[in-house]
Amino acid sequence: MSFNKDELDPPKWVNSDFLRRVIEDSGKGKNVQIRNYESTPATVLGDHFASIMFRIKVTFAADGIANGVISLILKTCPDVDGLKKQLLDSFNVFDLEIYMYTKVLNECRIILEKCGYTDLLAPRIIYSSLTPHKAIVFEDLNELGYFMLPKNVPDEYETRLIFSKLAQLHAVTFKMKADGRNDFNFKGTIFGLSAGRQMQFFWTGPKFLAEVMGTLPGFESYANKLHKITADWLMDKCIKVVNLPAAYSVLNHGDFHVRNMMFKKNIFNAVAEIALVDFQIPHWGSPAYDLVYMAALLPYEFREIAFRHYFNIFIDVLVKTGYEGELPTYEQLQQEIKAYSYLELYFQSTLAILVYMDRSKIDCQMETIMSDPVVWRSLYNGENYIAHIKETVPKLLDTIDIE
């Protein structure tokens, strides 16, 4: 199945009354009458995990509108009890995401536009609710020409665009905090999700990585080093570094990978713009969190290019905002990234699996992949993943003190 099974049909409360309220609240029309609507999955298998998302195309009439058509993206919680629902119920991710879109990202957009950065930062939220159902409705970026990258690993040019967009978000939130915003103290991150920490992949990653490294000729010494690492030890290291005071802090996206971005081409058919999506676990802390999160999933040769480009854009945005304080230095950023080496090891042993798995060969649901250790272990044998860890993990282990 190429779609998540719980996204084939929307919840029963998604009906004409709900859609009428959404369209009227969005300002698209008054006295709306829903004529017809059709729901399809908004994502494919492997694009995301916990929330469920639907693309709903609505035809309607309203005051002054005889034949209105609108495409909506609905994000909500699964109704069926299970790992997904447990994960979402353990953390107020919908509250946070609504807050980010309505109270933070709009202001970020305004500041960035004044600095000359006019590309779309994130989609516009047109409706949200927490009761009786948790729901967020977005404009459909597909209608604006945006698309999901058909590959999980960007090329060098796309990597520059990705880190440029991240720098814009980081810089403008740094400036907003310096100007007195006191509502950015989110401590999201995947390490703050209590239900998430109960998931199999959190605890089996280091062990499975050690096992697969041990099967690779010439990598035995690295496998031996990995075998000394326990999941508890690595988790404790990650939690500690995420909560340490940083040389300077920004508002991190918190789940910064290529499936949480949408891309748009220019008139020359080249990718030229990126919009960020899925702001459910924002995190105030070192910029190294987002940087390492994404860099861990890239070819190693892109790393320094990405970090340098990110920092140049970060400083450019900061200066153009009129920030008058002491500017962060690249040396500070390098030290922050180095301090997050334990975090990268965790990402290499877990999240990199989801990036480098061959999704065309996946014939089970993401919930099974994330919870069944047999299925999860099988992914470590993937050709693309092995090629990635052979390149990145030895370099990483050479910088980490395991003792």
TrEMBL record:
Domain CHK kinase-like: 136-320
Pfam families: EcKL (PF02958)
SMART domains, A to Z: CHK
Protein name, per record: CHK kinase-like domain-containing protein
